[in-house]
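Lab notebook page, bench 4
Experiment: in silico fold of construct C2
Operator: M.H.
Input chain length: 266 residues
Purpose: comparison with the prior construct
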Amino acid sequence: MAVADRQRQHSEKKMFSLCPFWQSANLSSSSSTQNLNHTQNGNSSNRNAMVNNSSKSSSSARTVSSVARSLLPARRRLRLDPSNKLYFPYEPGKQVRSAIRLKNTSRSHVAFKFQTTAPKSCFMRPPGGILAPGESLIATVFKFVEHPENNEKVIDQKSKVKFKIMSLKVKPGLEYVPEMFDEQKDQVTVERILRVVFLDAEHPSPALEKLKRQLAEAEAAVETRKKPPPDTGPRVVGEGLVIDEWKERREKYLARQKVEAVVDST
């Protein structure tokens, strides 16, 4: 039996040596499996790298876009007249006035707001508001003029006091409140930084004449707003026939009271 077993093992070894493709098949199968795993891992790494690169590119694009927006000049919503100055008559020791026209040149409702570096000596009327598309108004600015230190007359000189006009796009029908500019800081546009220029009140000039016209127009607008709405009064139908709605309501009420009183008594 031992001899037969040794002969059988010898024949099997000889057969395997004559048929080496079994071993090569096993080796190639193992190698293919390794290559497949390596390829899958490589593809996964490539996909992750592509995703990371895409994310970085998107982030870089957003950063570049935000930087580009910050470099571009802000789109103006208001047209100002005068455009960059506030003219005041030079009258030391008095409270003087200036005027500026604001017009909404955008297609949406725009809120505006004034700010000044000298709130104790300056104020605006109105200090803010909302303009519909194409609407305009003239704002009046009040300023107290102090006496010069050396009693020198200061004419056509730039003052340290500055005014800033800001704008904000709002929805129609919204009521103006100053806090809306704090709640939407990212949407606020600084329209202009206005500097103060004094005019000689004793000598006429085109700028002084224009200021007087604008102030007169602003006063007229204020008086118009102060007037009560027109009273339409009772409606007149035909000649001498007056229909008083309140009188009709009162008569109907009294008639209803009489009917209820009769019903209760029965």
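Observations: Residues 14-29, 236-243 have pLDDT under 50 and may be disordered. The longest strand covers residues 158-170.
Next step: discuss at group meeting.
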